Amino acid sequence: MSERPPISPRSPRAALEPEQVPPPPRRSERARNPFVVVGNAIFTILIILMIGAGAVYYYGRQILETPGPLKEDKIVNIPARAGKRDIADVLLREGVINVNPWAFIGGVFALKASSDLKPGEYSFQKNASLRDVIATIVEGKVVQHAVTIPEGLTSEQIVTRLLDNDIFAGSVREIPREGTLLPETYKFPRGTTREQVIQRMQQTQKRVLAEIWERRNPDVLVRSPEQLITLASIIEKETGRADERSRVAAVFTNRLRQRIKLQSDPTIIYGLVGGKGTLGRPIRRSEITQPSPYNTYVIEGLPPGPIANPGRASLEAAANPARTRDLFFVADGTGGHTFTETYDAHQKNVAKLRALEKAIQNDTVEPSEDAPPPTAAGAPADTNPTATTPRPGGQKKPPRPATPPAPAAAPTPAPGRQGAAQSTTTPVAQR
């Protein structure tokens, strides 16, 4: 029988305590590897960065997509050579954005548009988001301003209009040749140089002239595109009505065919004042016979060059005149003209117009306080103003006939049409 060790009585508390505390487990050799430690640190950093990037992406997207503060569309000018911070300041000042400038710069970098921001005048839409604002500047779709150059102005008058328009920049080196600019409505961004405007008008004129010259009537008497411009400029100054241009063209074409002097008053005016375009008073009787290369009362055929810049419609009329035998036309008192083939019929129409003008003057015109200057004994007065007739668009067109070869009694002179866009006209004497 084996012997058992004696049993030593223990207290209940001692019985619950282990007789020997087990040693702690040994740390794995792999866990103590420095590569594992570094790897765990990198993994932890990556997780933190991913969470941060996600938060930044979410916040940045909210900034880019949130509707902006604009209550209505607004035009804002981004100056040339402005940096990203300058652009942000302009947009913030104009109320286009309401975020910190650094948020705008961050949006520019996020959209990879750092080198694509273009200066100019932009139209930002109502509630445009930051993304929309940046996209608008990157696309470079600047505001286009419509500029209308009326028909019948001289090159000098057109240059004056360009110089008075603050949309354009720069100066004009020299006045373009008469008739080389096409009057039309053009669109330009703010800051376009005036030389660029002139170049565009000249290029458009060359293109349009080539097209019209190509499809001209083969029977037309002008021998070159330059002569076509000259004839069109006279037509432009003679009438402002679209439905009359081809008939006025026919009158001058028939006169050229029959070797009758054109006797167009606007040519006298251009010979007197040149590019200024407006005489500012009626033509004097003495000026009708005053020698000038442009005075078609003196010279045969067309003048040496245009007297204005004709529009497309007048060029078309000169290239394709109406098929009539008319040699004369005179104002009819209603804004239009009456055309006739014979001088006798023309004189009757002139008499009707004078009677109408006299009736109008008796009803509406008060006597002038200033007496006309005295004239030489037996000589007719130099001026004889008459009422002007209404023109389309609320403007006035002086009564304009084309006259026959100089009759025995000298006709009373009259200035021609002073340009389709002139806001004022001068009293004229009807011949």
Automatic annotation (TrEMBL):
Biased composition (Pro residues): 400-414
Membrane topology classification: Single-pass membrane protein
Any one GO molecular-function label of the UniProt entry: lytic endotransglycosylase activity
Documented EC number(s): 4.2.2.29
Location(s), subcellular: Cell inner membrane
EC category: lyase
Predominant cellular place of this UniProt entry's protein: membrane
Keyword Kinase recorded: no
Reactions performed catalytically: a peptidoglycan chain = a peptidoglycan chain with N-acetyl-1,6-anhydromuramyl-[peptide] at the reducing end + a peptidoglycan chain with N-acetylglucosamine at the non-reducing end
InterPro entries hit by this protein: MLTG-like
Biased composition (Low complexity): 376-396
Coiled coil: none
Residues covered by region (Disordered): 1-30, 363-431
GO BP terms, alphabetized: cell wall organization; peptidoglycan biosynthetic process
Keywords, comma-separated and alphabetical: Cell inner membrane, Cell membrane, Cell wall biogenesis/degradation, Lyase, Membrane, Transmembrane, Transmembrane helix
Gene3D superfamilies: Classic Zinc Finger, Endolytic murein transglycosylase
Site entry (Important for catalytic activity), positions: 238
Keyword hit for Transport: no
Gene Ontology cellular component annotations, sorted alphabetically: plasma membrane
Family per record: Belongs to the transglycosylase MltG family.
Name recorded for this polypeptide: Endolytic murein transglycosylase
Organism: Bradyrhizobium jicamae
